[in-house]
Amino acid sequence: MKNLFTLLFASILFFAVPEAGAQISVGPGVVFGTDINNIGFSVNGKYDFNEKWSAAPSFTYFLKKDFVNWSALDLDANYQLTQIENIGGLYALGGLNFTFWKIKYEYDYDLGEYGDFAGTLDGTGSDVGLNLGLGLNIPAGEKLAIAPEVRYTLGGANYLRLGVKVMFGL
């Protein structure tokens, strides 16, 4: 599986990078996950193939809550639907999502004359899903854009994410 991802990534770079006029942008973001019920921070990338299509991978780490760490890897494609006058470009997003979770709960109970009851419960897992959503690319300078997004992940882990990212053109 790892070799398949490596081959796919290398193929995309081989065919896409030489294209003249392509633009790459990167930046941080902040999101809120509804069923995760917590805030997360993301690292985002975007590669514009042309004026309509772009590839937009991202990784989001959610803050630990209730002994659980969540993270998400998104491999999305963006399609610009329309240009909104004096605001920016409205785009649809869709793609593959990998949601990872890790739980670690340590307990230590003093049962008085019966002794102590201590231990650790831990586990990890992942779910694969499909992302669907909308975003708005708002130019804030020559090489700077602010992009609020709303996306829903369908699959093993179903949740809505509301967020905003700041993208810097390279």
Automatic annotation (TrEMBL):
Keyword annotations of the record: Signal
Record protein name field: Outer membrane protein beta-barrel domain-containing protein
Statement: the UniProt record of this protein carries the keyword Signal: yes
Signal peptide boundaries: 1-22
Lineage top rank: taxon: Bacteria
